[in-house]
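Pasting as-is:
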Amino acid sequence: MRRSDCGAEDQEPKDEEDANGHDVTPKMEANLAAPDLRKCVEYMHCLNCLQAFAIVLGQSGRWGRYVWGGSTLSAEWTIREVLNWTRGYFEDAGIVQPRLEAEILLAHALEVERLHLYLSPDKPLTVDERSKFRTFVQERRAGIPLQHLIGEVTFFGLRFKVRRDALIPRGETEELLDRTLRLVGRDQAARCLDLGTGSGVIAICLARYLPRASVTAADISSDALALARENALLNGVADRVAFLESNWFQNVSGTFDLIVSNPPYVETETIESLAVEVRDHEPRVALDGGTDGIEQIRLLVAGAGDHLEAGGRILLEIGHGQGDRVRRLFVDAGLEDVSIETDLSGLERFAVARRPQ
């Protein structure tokens, strides 16, 4: 016998109740409010609880509706009802935006735009659609990032593929890019370097939004560079971005008007306390900033002066509380006009400096 998620062992149910003791007396309105039964039936984990549903459905002679936790759930599992119950399931798991994530995953499972969910809320899901969606829901609750499940993310108005080879782009990095673009004129023929490019979002956006710029994207990971190349092709700038495998400036030659980077800045001992979707599904090399969180930033800043044009700027994403230490690194490297700036949440997040003329 196999023990199911509700704690019962799969076996033949009794005539009027299943092996869990749940009342399955045939009737058009069955009270299925028990939390353990809700978990099993909703995502079809448990044979016993599914048999309970089957008895009610089969003996009623037609599709019925069920009272579940005070609400009514259709046996046809419509888009509306699946979204409502998935929202509750995700809320229980502590997912921050449960309704939004439920919609994104369901739209992905149905291969439609999210708008379709609102246009056809009473459309029943087929067995195959339910099975596909159920798998996504189980994986998301287990901690797999939403972006990895759907395989893409929107960043600064562009679409990018994502996978475990590189960090998932986040809102703070969009802020970093916005600050970068404000420093360079659209018609300026700037030479730009994106260090630690990951999935390539910064380099690719620079190439898209600065049509005269020349852009180099470097990363220590060949897998990340392969992903970045795919994204450059996807966004029509494959011929505008030069990709280079390099540990920071190791294989970089020449000087640049602009150096941008989102380097690892998480303290090593802090990584284990991160959310499971970050700790277990993001590349450790892109997170680990060493014992003090700025070991990689220290290496990066040390080489920046030799690769910046006179008057050129460097912009980094940093961790909150690292501002004063990064400021000292910039000053010690002979850079000027150093500023530590906050993100939209008011946290220290960006370090900016300039090489003297």
